[in-house]
C-alpha cells in the first residue's frame, strides 16, 4: 500500500492536463495603449453619473493596427473628467484582428491602460495557416505574450517549401 502522500502526488500528476493551458507568443496581437481609440456604432447611450457608455449595433473599435468588432461594447471611463477609457467590454460575437492574426470569441475585456485583452467563450485564434481554439485567451498586448486555457486544440500548418 502506498503512503497517502504518494497517492496524493500520483493523483495530482495524473489529473494534470498539459493541454489545458498553452502559452503562446503573438507577433501581431500588440497594441499601443497610448494610441487613440476610435469607436463606431449604430447607437450610443451615455450615463454621465457612472461614467459608462454603451455602444450597440455593428460596433467597430480601432486602435492603431488593431481592430475589434462586436454587437455591443460597454465602455468604462476613468478620471474625474471621464476623458480616458479604462476598459472596453465587448459581447455578441467578438472579432479582434491585426494584419497578422485574428481571434474570435463570445466576449472580450480590453483593459486599455494595462494593455491586456481577455477573450472568453469558444475562442478561436488564427495565425496564418495555424489555428488554436480554447475557452479563454489572455494576451498582454504590450509584450505580445499570451495564454490559451481550457481544452486547447492546436492545428499547425507547415510552411510550403
Sheet with most strands: 11 strands, antiparallel
Q: Average pLDDT across residues?
A: 79
The percent range for strand residues is over 45%
Write down how many β-strands occur, each being a DSSP E stretch of 2 or more residues: 11
Into which percent range does the helicity of residues fall?
under 10%
- Total count of helical runs of at least 4 residues: 1
From the helix content, strand content and strand pairing, which structural class follows?
Answer: mainly beta
Oligomer kind:
single chain
Cα shape:
elongated
Alpha-carbon distance between the termini?
56 Å
Enumerate the spans where pLDDT stays under 50 for 5 or more consecutive residues: 1-23
Order of helices and strands: HEEEEEEEEEEE
> What's the gyration radius in Å?
19 Å
Account of the 3D structure:
By secondary structure, the chain is mostly beta strands. The protein is built from 1 helix and 11 strands, in the order αβββββββββββ. Strands 1, 2, 3, 4, 5, 6, 7, 8, 9, 10 and 11 form an 11-stranded antiparallel beta sheet that branches. A hairpin with a 3-residue loop joins strand 6 (84-97) and strand 7 (101-111). The longest helix has 12 residues, at 4-15. It is elongated. Mean pLDDT is 79; it is low at 1-23.
Give a short synopsis of this structure:
This protein has one helix and eleven strands; from the N terminus they run H-E-E-E-E-E-E-E-E-E-E-E. It has one helix at residues 4-15, and strands spanning 21-25, 38-40, 43-47, 52-63, 66-78, 84-97, 101-111, 116-127, 130-140, 145-149, 153-155.
Amino acid at each position: 500500500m502506498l503512503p497517502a502522500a504518494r497517492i496524493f502526488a500520483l493523483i495530482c500528476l495524473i489529473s494534470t492536463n498539459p493541454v489545458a493551458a498553452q502559452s503562446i507568443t503573438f507577433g501581431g496581437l500588440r497594441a499601443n495603449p497610448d494610441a487613440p481609440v476610435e469607436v463606431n456604432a449604430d447607437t450610443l447611450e451615455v450615463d454621465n453619473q457612472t461614467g459608462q457608455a454603451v455602444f450597440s449595433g455593428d460596433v467597430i473599435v480601432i486602435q492603431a493596427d488593431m481592430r475589434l468588432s462586436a454587437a455591443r461594447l460597454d465602455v468604462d471611463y476613468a478620471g474625474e473628467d471621464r476623458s480616458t477609457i479604462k476598459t472596453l467590454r465587448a459581447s455578441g460575437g467578438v472579432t479582434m484582428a491585426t494584419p497578422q492574426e485574428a481571434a474570435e470569441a463570445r466576449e472580450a475585456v480590453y483593459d486599455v491602460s494595462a494593455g491586456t485583452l481577455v477573450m472568453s467563450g469558444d475562442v478561436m485564434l488564427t495565425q496564418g495557416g495555424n489555428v488554436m481554439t480554447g475557452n479563454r485567451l489572455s494576451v498582454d498586448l504590450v509584450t505580445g505574450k499570451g495564454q490559451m486555457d481550457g481544452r486547447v486544440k492546436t492545428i499547425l500548418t507547415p510552411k510550403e517549401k
